[in-house]
Write a structure and sequence with these properties.
Elements: H1 3-15, H2 21-34, H3 51-55, E1 71-73, E2 78-85, E3 90-94, E4 97-100, H4 101-105, H5 110-115, E5 120-125, E6 133-135, E7 140-148, H6 157-162, H7 166-169, E8 172-179, E9 185-191, E10 199-201, E11 216-219, E12 224-225, E13 230-234, E14 239-244, E15 246-248, E16 255-256, E17 261-265
Antiparallel strand pairs: 1-17, 2-5, 2-16, 3-4, 5-14, 6-13, 7-8, 7-11, 7-12, 8-9, 9-14, 10-13, 15-17
Length: 269
């Protein structure tokens, strides 16, 4: 196990430790203050028994969704780090830093590779201050989940500029999904990062991350999610990458909230 994974496990254990109440209140309030977290949609900082509970906080009431049959909404509260069209099956992790999406997604079948030729990508970066749960961008069916073990390098701007092929190096879970509106295949990827002790997926507890269990593939039948349904959570910030045949309506460096319109889908077939 490399250093970043070990550090993330240690941090995860500390974050899950319930300190004496008065100390925990101080830790939680300090975290909220340092990262300037807006807690209007969440319980008060003093109510969380561990720092991880604060990281993975739930919304106290449903978020308004700008979901329509022909669009996708942002699955996260995040910064659009990069977006664009795949060029020769390459995407940008950040401007000037390309990586191949074929190993990133684990694609080797000729038909699957050809099908994404004209797809677009978007990188949604969750900072330590952000709401850490991720949601379904539209009505969809989960067909497959692929877990790729790897490192847990930071995914902030500095690290993206420094580490070539970071998205192919880091631990990740690739969800192959089918959009209900037009039956097109897309890929929804949760990328691990430093201090992400775990990534959790509500529809399948078998998916274990940062656990030294090796790569794994899970397939599903009748695993349907509605737009806005909670897919899972990061136990600390990270990145969601969407690769799909869509028209994005936001720009890179825009800050988006879960539920906002993010892209338009092609017409139903």
């Amino acid at each position: 196990m490399n250093f970043s994974n070990k550090l993330s496990r240690i941090f995860g254990k500390i974050a899950n430790k319930a300190f004496p109440h008065i100390i925990q209140i101080f830790i939680n309030r300090l975290y909220v203050y340092v990262f300037k977290i807006d807690m209007k949609e969440f319980n008060k900082p003093c109510s969380y028994k561990t720092l991880n509970a604060l990281f993975t906080r739930k919304l106290t009431k449903p978020r308004k969704l700008d979901a329509k049959p022909f669009n996708i909404i942002s699955p996260t509260d995040s910064l659009i780090m990069e977006q664009g069209r795949l060029e020769n099956y390459k995407a940008l992790q950040i401007k000037g830093m390309e990586y191949s999406v074929l190993p990133f997604l684990g694609l080797s079948d000729t038909k699957d590779i050809e099908s994404i030729k004209h797809y677009k990508f978007i990188n949604l970066y969750l900072s330590p201050k952000d709401y850490h749960r991720f949601h379904a961008p539209c009505d969809l069916e989960v067909l497959e989940a692929r877990y790729f073990s790897g490192r847990l390098l930071p995914v902030n701007k500095t690290s993206l500029l420094k580490n070539k092929d970071l998205f192919n190096i880091n631990e990740r879970v690739v969800l192959k999904v089918r959009f209900s509106y037009n039956q097109e295949i897309a890929y929804y990827v949760a990328v691990g990062a430093l201090n992400v002790g775990k990534m959790r997926f509500n529809f399948d507890e078998r998916i274990k991350t940062n656990a030294s269990l090796g790569d794994a593939i899970y397939t599903y039948e009748n695993c349907f999610l509605k737009a806005g349904d909670e897919v899972g959570m990061f136990e600390m910030g990270s990145t969601i990458v969407l690769i799909a045949n869509v028209l994005f309506v936001k720009k890179e460096q825009d800050v988006v909230r879960m539920g906002e319109e993010l892209a338009l889908l092609n017409k139903s077939v």
